[in-house]
Amino acid sequence: MRALALVPLVLFAGFSLAQEPAAQEPAAGAAPAKAAVDFSKQVAPLLMQRCIECHGPKEQKGDLRLDSREAVFPKGAEDSWTVTPGKPDESELIHRIGLPLSDEDIMPNKGEPLTKAQQELLRQWVAEGAHWDDAGDKAIAEALAAQVLPKITFDLPEVDAAQQAAIDKAIAALREKGAVVQQVAADTRAVDVNFSLLRDKVGDAELAMCEPLAPVLVWLNVSRTAVTDAGIKHLAGFAQLRRLHAANTAISDAGFAKLAGLAKLEYVNAYGTGLSDAGLLGLAGLPHLKQVYAWQSKVTADGKKALLARLPGVQVDLGDYVEERLAAAQKEISEREARNKPVNEMCPVLDKPIDAALFVEYEGRRIAFCCAKCKAAFQKDPKKYLEKLPK
Ligand code: HEC
Predict the structure, then answer these.
(1) How close is the Cα of 101 to the center of ligand 1, in Å?
(2) Please, is 264 exposed, middle or buried when counting C-beta atoms within 10 Å of its C-beta (0-12, 13-18, 19+)?
(3) How far is the CA of 377 from the centre of ligand 1 (A)?
(4) What's the pLDDT score for residue 34?
(5) What are the pocket residues of ligand 1 if the criterion is a CB atom closer than 6 Å to any ligand atom?
(6) pLDDT attached to residue 30
(7) I need a surface site. Which of 1, 177, 234, 367 has the fewest CB within 10 A?
């Protein structure tokens, strides 16, 4: 009973098993003195929490997957196993998790290191034979499935055969022009059209070519193209449009005003356009608007305030934080440079020009010397030279 009661302690209070008398390694062949590790309940959740994001279905860093028995113990490739059942000291995985934080090979290689209790748990699991049964695979598969973000769904209107033919024809023609046209996801008819790579080869005429796509077009990118205010009228029927990227175009308030009827529009990127406070306020009638990106447009903080008064939930990004962050980064760099700069230009010992690479840190200041000898002399008796240094 006592050994069983330990398990929650280990998991929740972070106690090290090693501190418990019951946790001594069992002598070979002896009955284990502590509860055997339950892979599904103890190891799988730990792998999920700390490893599988980099060693699972999405990424296989270091060519390693830790999300199924087959991946960890591939048949016929025993030499490459990162876990050697029964032999924690020969297991790369156990070695990695036990490294000091200063070692770049430590796993996980970001965030906190595993606690002593977690390390001990994995070590015990390996020592006990690294059992990984079907229930273990299932536990991980279920946890992964639960992690998947809700599917993007689009409630698109039905189209008849004639409309579908028109859609297919328009897609072919757009692709012919070099536009990137793709389904947003495998299980939807929703379409994403991206003109931005074509730059000024695309203008209002190409936008007109999109019109048959109105029942399925959900994302459109005309950034950096030559599309004008006049061309935006072709978007008026795009009742399914959710995202519009129009950054770095000549579109101004007159163009953005034509978006007013787009009931599903959620996101407008107007970076580097002529959008002004008046134009921004014109978007207040969009019932689903969530975000407007307006850095380097004509929108001001007052314009943002006015829109928020009408649509409190909307994010209006004026990019001010970008400048703030740049300024902060710049400040840090200059501070670091200042810290790394010697306070003196002349050697306090011989009064000759310094070599900035020959320095000591003394009472929070960097003091440089003309030669190694002077540096040594200073280190021997700093007080003797201090008055020669700038205050
Ligand atoms: C943020 C990403 C990340 C996380 C989380 C992570 N790893 Fe890694 N892992 C890496 C990268 C990158 C490499 C390859 C570079 C290297 O070998 O250090 C690697 C390599 C390894 C290797 C060596 C593979 C080989 O055979 O060369 C092992 C073993 C390993 N990780 C185990 C783990 C374990 C166990 C966890 C969880 C406790 C974990 N990793 C969590 C990124 C990660």
Answers:
(1) 14
(2) middle
(3) 48
(4) 73
(5) 50-51, 53-55, 61-62, 64, 82, 92-93, 96-97, 105, 107-110, 114
(6) 43
(7) 1
Write out the two tokens for 259.
């978006």
- Which amino acid would we find at residue 256? F
Cβ-based neighbours of 74, under 8 Å, separated by 6 or more: 80, 81
pLDDT tens by residue, 256-290: 999 999 999 999 999 999 999 999 999 999 999 99
Contact 234, 251 (CB under 8 A): no
Give the Cα separation of 192 and 180 in Å (integer): 8
Cα distances (angstroms) measured from residue 391 to each of 114, 365, 367, 386: 48, 11, 12, 9
Cα–Cα dist 275/21, whole Å: 71
- Please give the distance, rounded to the nearest whole angstrom, from the Cα atom of residue 65 to the centre of ligand 1: 9
Mutational test site, ligand 1, from 109, 112, 118, 126, max ligand atoms within 8 Å of CB: 109
Q: What is the CA radius of gyration of the chain?
A: 32
Low-confidence ranges of the chain (pLDDT < 70): 1-33, 148-152, 321-325
End-to-end Cα distance, the chain: 70
CA 102, 106, 109 angle in degrees (round to 5)? 100
Q: Is 296 exposed, middle or buried (0-12, 13-18, 19+ CB in 10 A)?
A: middle
Contacts of 193 (CB under 8 A, 6+ apart): 174, 179, 180, 181, 210, 213, 217, 219, 220, 221
Q: Which atom of ligand 1 is nearest to the CA of 50?
A: 37
